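During the no-cost extension, the postdoctoral fellow (Dr. R.K.) reprocessed legacy sequence entries with the updated structure-token encoder. One reprocessed record is reproduced below for audit purposes.
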Amino acid sequence: MFGTIVFWDEATGQGQIRAYGGSPKPLFSASAIDRDDFPSTLATGQLVAFDYDQLTGQVTNVRSLLYQLAR
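Re-encoded structure tokens follow.
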């Protein structure tokens, strides 16, 4: 899925993603994210791709689209 980060709090490692055409997704923690996917920290308004499990509501494997395109 694709979306943008509505907000990201580096101190708590929590944020919220809004998927295109959808409502905000549940909060997720940094422990569920592979930080190696990022050249820097996540930022509010950043365009990202992510995996979303509809059964559990878990958001995982969040990655910056700009970074992925540049690889």
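The first helix runs from residue 65 to 70. The chain has one domain: 2-70. The remaining legacy entries will be reprocessed before the final report is submitted.
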